[in-house]
Amino acid sequence: MNSVEDFVALLRDELALPVTAEDLDSGWDTVDCWDSVHLLSLCTLLERETGRQLSLAAALEAPSLAALYRLAVGP
């Protein structure tokens, strides 16, 4: 995963979430169809795509998809 666009494509293609890059900074409650199963699935997908292990505790504290993306790809 090399860009935010790749992240959005992952969300759409793998999790069937209807999001755009503009939606990433919104809170979880505004993400259409979002639930805790999506979070676990997304963490697994991000680990696969980035080759990096994610802290589940840090993922649970992320306030948005954008924050989770930054957590996955690093600083």
Q: Secondary-structure map with pairings?
A:
Elements: H1 4-15, H2 36-50, H3 56-61, H4 65-73
Helix pairs in contact: 1-2
Description:
The chain is an all-alpha fold. The chain has one domain (4-73): Orthogonal Bundle (Non-ribosomal Peptide Synthetase Peptidyl Carrier Protein, Chain A), CATH 1.10.1200.10. Helices cover 56% and strands 0% of the residues. The chain has 4 helices and no strands. The protein has helices at 4-15, 36-50, 56-61, 65-73. Helix 1 packs across helix 2. The longest helix is centred in the middle third of the chain and has 15 residues, at 36-50. The protein is globular and about 25 Å long.
Throw out a few tags for this protein.
globular; Non-ribosomal Peptide Synthetase Peptidyl Carrier Protein, Chain A; 4 helices; mainly alpha; 75 residues
Describe the largest sheet.
Answer: none
Average predicted local confidence, pLDDT? 93
Helix content: 55-70%
Tell me the fraction of residues in β-strands, as a range. Answer: under 5%
- The CATH C-level name is Mainly Alpha
Uncertain ranges: none
Number of strands: 0
- How many domains make up the 3D coordinates? 1
CATH superfamily: ACP-like
Number of helices: 4
- Which architecture per CATH? Orthogonal Bundle
> What characteristic shape results from the CA principal axes?
globular
How is the quaternary structure best described?
single chain
List SSEs in N-to-C order: HHHH
Helical/strand content category: mainly alpha
